[in-house]
Amino acid sequence: MEFLTDIWNWFPAEIQNVVWILVKIVAIVLPLIIAVAYFTYAERKIIGYMQVRIGPNRVGPKGWLQPFADVFKLIFKEVTVPAGASKFLFLMAPLLSLGPALAAWAVMPFDAHMVLSDVNAGLLYILALTSVAVYGVIIAGWASNSKYALLGAMRSAAQIVSYEIAMGFALVGVLVAAGSLNLGDIILAQEGSMAHWFVWPLFPLFLVYFISGVAETNRAPFDVAEGESEIVAGFHVEYSGTAFAVFFLAEYANMILIAALTAIMFLGGWLSPFQGTFLEGAFSWVPGIFWFIFKSMFVAFFFLWFRATFPRYRYDQIMRLGWKVFIPITIVWIVLVAVAQVYDMPWWFD
Amino acid sequence: MLANYLPVIIFIAVGMVIGAVVLFAGMLLGPHKPYGEKNTPFECGFEAFEDARMKFDVRYYLVAILFIIFDLEIAFLFPWAVVLDDIGVVGMLAMFVFLGVLVVGFIYEWKKGALEWE
To answer: What value of ipTM does the predicted structure carry?
Structure first.
């Protein structure tokens, strides 16, 4: 043990620092990937029960090992690159969609002082990274040299950028109310009790943000990008094996990310829901990270619920909802929130 | 201050590396037996009969242009929203003028039919 600490101290401080950061990143990414794996399992199970089926139940007890079986299957499948595809871009596209989906977690506050990098422009960083993800989709569709892939990519890109506007406006509302871009400060601005959470004063923005999040991640009922009954699988029709798995991983990681962000910006993040009530003391032993995960899972459940219950929108309906409904709603609400903030109207805007 | 961003940069690199590792694991462990038909792009059982990089609807282009305008608008609103408490009523009204100009443009494009997808 002494020997190991000697070796550790022998390294210069900069390298020690980088190693520490890497250890922390692994501590974030590993649970995240396991969460993604079991989110796919939860999706199949929950949708199964909603449709009065059982869902996967063969691999391991009650099907609990199903995600691992899926991973091993995908790893041993051939990765095909279609003739006429731009090989470099074709293989680069999945990385471009997975990289941002994981990297956004760098600024995520899991608990009061549990955050990898407490940067001031946290929300701006996340907005930037979620915008980068659209490159993965476009490049994948273009590089495949397939008509379905190109059509899916065009649809998906137009849809993502349309909903990104509504999403951005919803974030502006949160910023006005919180007065900071730092995610930790946004949570602290909601401190007090459940009635201080931004979900109440910003309720329309909460709805717009979450529905835009569903559209951004190309999930049902906005999944025309994949639209398996019309354009087979959209932008990733030509991908197989692990190249497909990376896209899949990115899609689910993005869903969990949107759920976590919704929990942070509207549902008080790691704050206890019993704050300010007589139950506060009884639940004070529960760590904040538990509430954060619980709220994120609660929001993530809606992604699965939507998929089980809503039929797919038509493309013109999707674009109409994004441009003609969400953008006017958010602009009006930003004006109202700004007035409330400047004149210190209710307690949310102190 | 800038040191705060070191973990962010490392995290982005790690994210890309994880994707690359998964990709290479698949290429290494999976079979690799390409032949002509397998490598043709999917086309419902037909032979592909023209280049896939075809013309597409100009409306996608229009959406992209409108997106740039609105996204820039959001980029302007972000710093305004953060300091709204300090700049007070004057700052708020100044941004409302700006928003008003944007709304006029929005109404114009709506009436012109730029948002129609029928």
So the answer is: 0.87
